[in-house]
Amino acid sequence: MCRGGDNVSGDEERVRLDRWLWAARFFKTRRLAVEAVQGGKVDVDGARAKPSRAVRPGDRLTITKGEQRFEVIVHGVAEQRGPAKVAETLYEETAESRQRRQQQAEQRRAAGAALPRPEQRPDKRQRRHLSAFKRGG
Q: Which of the chain's termini has less CB crowding within 10 Å, N or C?
């Protein structure tokens, strides 16, 4: 296992799944990474995994964050979170995954454009009325 100052390791190295997800910047904290793995939001090679599962280069991960779903292939391992440029070198997103996420983003934009928009922001009196309406008063 990678200990100390070594950020990126060789082919024989392994690292915990929760640490890798955090180091690769899929999750802001390790705690969020652990909760995602325990909640079944992360699969390793098509199987559900535990946070302590070892991740090696060549593993295929499926990560679900909200509505987004990433399919990535691990290229390197790291135990420490580093710059975003280093994190990008740890994995490669599959072309199908990238294309699917772009299509979903376009659908969300199109759905948002169809929603009615007010011409201006509510003034103070209108905000009070809205607040009272939301409270049920």
A: C
